[in-house]
Specification:
Protein name: L-aspartate oxidase
CATH class of the largest domain: Alpha Beta
Catalytic activity: L-aspartate + O2 = iminosuccinate + H2O2
Cofactor: FAD
Structural class: alpha+beta
Number of strands: 23
Radius of gyration: 22 Å
Shape: globular
Strand content: 15-25%
Number of domains: 2
Enzyme class: oxidoreductase
CATH topology of the largest domain: FAD/NAD(P)-binding domain
Pfam families: FAD_binding_2 (PF00890), Succ_DH_flav_C (PF02910)
């Protein structure tokens, strides 16, 4: 079994710092929640790198909310449910589509400057959306603009303390309640931060895979910490691979936004043939999982490593104005978005599952909350609708703060002592172990899966379990322990779900099976893998 704590703990020997609210992570979920919580509470933001390092920063497309008179929450709800392939929670989706516009207005009040046209929000349309409802900033740098505005506001706020370069190792629990977090400082010293409420905003798990649009920091820390603490982890087999990441020698797997296809770009195989009509009536704007699998099929059939994204029929002026960031990055590698076909391939992008929460963002452990990609609110189901992630973070961030406001202060002083027999320091370089794990995940638990490969992958991952008995002292060692935990959870859940639905595709069970599988997979440290049916589908 995965140990309860990654390191030996003796709380009575550690310095203690007390805060009302502890926020772990600094993307849109962490910053927004911290700013709202600071109105009535003292807040600590813990980030393992800096305020500007998160998945939010790389979000290009925008944020989905019902702003236009031609749109309605009912349309947004329908689009979200269709994309979610039968696994969305109705109530959670209702919360998102009805409270999203209010959240956008909050972002504007906090200083976010969305693009305008004739004094109104400039709205665009993305794959699987029936209406124009995506707000964007600086063309294709929405995430960066949101993080810029929110981090500026957070840093200037006297009620918010920010700890950069600090690593949250484990959540501390007593009598089934979360009391705070064990943190390692940059100098290696450890402290216990006690809090009335702890909010996981630590982002996703893209680094489980060799090719990902996520930054280096996306190592699934929050899901692993919550699992060790005894929280319920739900639907982690559903990992969305973004269909179009730049695939070019020497270049990172840079995300080329869905909005490029929303503005008319087409996909061509290496023979130059447009192929999406063979796969889906919505062509390039089909749901992401369909487009990603279609691209993989074309790559395999043409014996290549990529397909092309072609937006050359649009004017150079329009391309530069609408996609300045993408245009600039492509140009760095000698590719001109306006005149060249851009080589792209799928890359791991977003985890639909995560730590299970209720409609107020509270997990199965009292006083522990989860917000953003680390959470499983029920909004995304088996496949996230484009640009719903940023709106989910602000909508549920607001609800978390409201719930915290109604809680009684934590009165107990936890007395935790945990010691494990340890086998010395890790012997193999962590960077090698991480690469091996990523290759296992790409090979056996990637876009297309089947039982034999998943079982083989799980068995190879389990051979790495002795790592948990090592003496861990460095950030990269904690990250690897968290990645290994996440990889095993994802592979187990994928092996159990014997059907194909949304972003989970099994070659040995290629059909969706609503009779048997219209339910969630749930993992718990002691109970193992269980299933959770729900009535309101």
């Amino acid at each position: 079994m995965i140990p309860r704590y990654l390191v030996d703990v003796a709380l009575d020997e550690l310095p203690v710092i007390e805060k009302d609210v502890i926020v772990i992570g600094a993307g849109i979920a962490g910053l927004f929640t911290a700013i709202r919580a600071s109105e009535h509470h003292s807040v600590l933001i813990i980030t393992k790198k800096s305020l500007l390092d998160s998945n939010t920063r790389y979000a290009q497309g925008g944020i989905a909310a019902v702003i236009s008179d031609e749109d309605s929450p009912a349309y947004h709800r329908q689009d979200t449910l269709i994309a979610g392939a039968g696994l969305c929670d109705d109530e959670a989706v209702d919360v998102l589509v009805n409270e999203g516009p209010h959240g956008v207005r909050s972002l504007v009040r906090m200083g976010t400057q969305f693009d305008l046209e004739n004094g109104e929000f400039a709205l665009t349309k993305e794959g699987a959306h029936s209406q124009r409802r995506i707000l964007h900033a600086n063309g294709d740098a929405t995430g960066f603009e949101i993080v810029r505005a929110l981090s500026k506001k957070a840093v200037a706020n006297p009620a918010i303390e920010v700890w950069d370069d600090h690593f949250a190792i484990d959540l501390v629990t007593q009598n089934g309640e979360c009391c705070g977090v064990l943190v390692q400082k940059p100098d290696g010293q450890r402290v216990f931060v006690k809090g009335n409420a702890t909010v996981l905003c630590s982002g996703g798990s893209g680094q489980l895979f060799r090719y990902t649009t996520n930054p280096e920091v996306a190592t699934g820390d929050g899901i692993a910490m919550a699992y060790r603490a005894g929280a319920l982890i739900r639907d982690v087999e559903f990992i969305q691979f973004h269909p179009t990441a730049l695939c070019y020698p020497g270049a990172p797997r840079f995300l080329i936004s869905e909005a490029v296809r929303g503005e008319g770009a087409v996909l061509r195989n290496i023979r130059g043939e447009r192929f999406m009509e063979r796969y889906h009536p919505q062509l390039e704007l089909a749901p992401r999982d369909v487009v990603a699998r279609a691209i993989v099929n074309e790559i395999e059939e043409t014996n290549s490593t990529f397909v092309y994204l072609d937006v050359t029929h649009e004017s150079e002026e329009m391309v530069k104005h609408r996609f300045p960031t993408i245009y600039g990055v492509c140009l760095q590698y000698g590719l001109d978005l306006a005149t060249d076909w851009i080589p792209v391939a799928p890359a791991a992008h977003y985890m639909m599952g995560g730590v299970k929460t209720d409609l107020n963002g509270e997990t199965s452990i009292p006083r522990l909350f989860a917000c953003g990609e680390v959470s499983s609110t029920g909004v995304h189901g088996a496949n996230r609708l484009a640009s719903n992630s940023l709106s989910e973070a602000i909508v549920f961030g607001r609800r978390i703060v409201r719930r915290i406001g109604g809680m009684k202060p934590l009165t107990i002083r936890p007395e935790v002592r945990y010691k494990k027999e340890r086998s010395g320091f890790p012997t193999q370089a962590v960077v090698e172990k991480r690469l091996k794990l990523q290759k296992i995940m790409v090979r056996y638990a990637g876009l297309q899966r089947e039982a034999t490969g998943l079982a083989k992958g799980l068995s190879e991952l389990e051979r790495q379990k002795p790592f948990f008995a090592s003496v861990l002292t460095k950030r990269e060692e904690f990250e690897f322990a968290n990645l290994l935990t996440g990889a095993m959870l994802t592979t187990q859940a994928a092996l159990v779900r014997e059907e194909s639905r949304g972003a989970h595709y099994r070659k040995d069970f290629p059909k969706r099976d609503d009779l048997l599988w219209r339910k969630h997979s749930v993992l718990h440290r002691e109970a193992g893998v269980t299933e959770e049916s729900f009535e309101n589908v």
